[in-house]
Automatic annotation (TrEMBL):
Keywords: Dioxygenase, Iron, Metal-binding, Oxidoreductase
Family note: Belongs to the homogentisate dioxygenase family.
Keyword Metal-binding (UniProt): yes
Annotated source species: Streptosporangium jomthongense
Domain Homogentisate 1,2-dioxygenase N-terminal: 105-247
Pfam families referenced in this protein's UniProt entry, alphabetically: HgmA_N (PF20510)
Keyword Iron: yes
Protein name per Swiss-Prot or TrEMBL: Homogentisate 1,2-dioxygenase
InterPro entries, per database record: HgmA_N, Homogentis_dOase, RmlC-like_jellyroll, RmlC_Cupin_sf
Cofactor(s) essential for the protein: Fe cation
Length: 393
């Protein structure tokens, strides 16, 4: 994370004796990034956090990936997925590469304890509300929230009634999801003019006390292991540092506007190894008198582009079947743009009302085992049909 937080009790000095009222020594745990050379947090447990009593392999049902061959744009309707399972084990893998995995889940049950020891996770809450619990405490999240969970953070999701729909980006190649460097000073402060800052970020607010043995599912570089711990990982009396889960509402992202169309990097929100994540939010449209207000046709020369449509009116996609919960994939090597007629329709419109999350990757995306369950097979031909061209697809 990018700035210091403290919750509960911590000793005055790191690595020094810290005891409870009964005189028992608390157990210090350091969670840090990039070895010992980047951001860190220090947690203080009532009992040792390392005692495991059982370990067994758990089936990794991510399934095989396949190339996007023949190269086609794709449209997925995630609302075709019926609610079922929990926010961790119920995820459906849709696409990915060696840098990241993109999945979706419509959960109707609480999750088990889970720790991703491979890379950070960014979870966008499309619908519903929940509490994210971790050794760092409780954090309530709801629709429109980005939730960033650092690597190796043990956590679980508790639903606050109803279903919880999540769009999940995992840094599967290792590495961390962070605010873009261009928003930050060399000392980690958000610069004035960045589209969000420390005031918009929420962290855990209250420690979660737990005791007794606990099962934890751990994703590691070779698969998934289910550990049984002698002591619960949430038995923390306090922590401090720069590394913890946090939430940012997409509604707190301040968009830029211009006289003419601004390119997608204007809306970058997070960056990870081999990918970036952007937020499209309601804003005033371009105000030059001759502006064409919908995006121009473009080819992603160096990246695959994924868009998750999560709110509002998607004017440039009208007529394609794209709507709430849709995911589009426009791969490198494919020229794409607004639907025929969208540019003309935009001329008198003064603002856009859409919300969307974009993921741009710099390696080609393969297709996941659950993509076929939600795919619209006619999407690739929608531009031709919109222009009145007869196609056989």
């Amino acid at each position: 994370m990018v700035y210091y937080r403290r919750l509960g009790e911590v000793p005055r000095k790191r690595h020094s004796q810290f005891r409870g009222a009964d005189g028992a020594l608390y157990h210090e745990e350091m969670q840090g990034e990039e070895g010992f050379s980047w951001t860190q947090s220090f947690l203080y447990h009532r009992r040792i956090p390392t005692a495991i009593t059982a370990a067994e392999s758990h089936a990794d049902d991510g399934g095989p990936m396949r190339p996007n061959d023949p190269l086609l744009p794709r449209h997925l309707r995630t609302h075709a997925f019926e609610p079922g399972g929990d926010p961790i084990l119920g995820r459906r893998v849709l696409m990915g590469n060696s840098d990241l995995t993109i999945s979706y889940v419509a959960a109707d049950a609480d999750s088990p304890l889970y720790r991703n020891a491979v890379g950070d996770e960014l979870v966008y809450v499309e619908a519903g509300s929940a509490v994210l619990e971790s050794p760092y405490g409780r954090m309530e999240v709801g629709d429109g929230d980005y939730v960033v969970i650092p690597t190796s953070t043990t956590h679980r999701w508790r639903l606050l009634g109803g279903e919880l729909r999540l769009f999940v980006v995992t840094a599967s190649g290792g590495g961390h999801i962070r605010p873009p460097k261009r928003f930050m000073s060399p000392f980690g402060q958000f610069l004035d003019g960045s589209p969000y800052n420390e005031r918009d970020i929420r962290g855990p607010e209250e420690l979660t006390s737990a005791d007794g043995p606990a099962e934890v599912y751990v994703r590691h570089r070779r698969g998934v292991t289910r550990y049984t711990y002698a002591y619960h990982p949430f038995d923390v009396v306090g922590w401090d540092g720069y590394n913890y889960p946090y939430a940012l509402s997409i509604r707190d992202f301040t968009p830029s506007t211009g006289a003419l169309h601004l390119p997608p990097p204007t809306y970058i929100t997070f960056e990870g190894p081999g990918f970036v994540i952007c937020s499209f939010v309601p804003r005033m449209y371009d105000y030059h008198p001759d502006a064409v207000k919908v995006p121009y046709n473009h080819a992603n020369v160096d990246s695959d582009e994924v868009l998750f449509y999560c709110g509002g009116d998607f004017m440039s996609r009208a007529g394609t079947g794209v709507g709430m919960g849709s995911i589009s994939l426009h791969p490198a090597g494919y020229i794409h743009g607004p639907q025929p007629g969208s540019a003309e329709k935009s001329m008198t419109v003064t603002r856009t009302e859409e919300y969307a999350v974009m993921v741009d990757t710099f390696k080609p995306l393969d297709l996941g085992p659950h993509l076929d369950e939600a795919e619209d097979p006619g999407y690739a031909w929608s531009w031709a049909r919109g222009a009145g061209v007869d196609v056989g697809g």
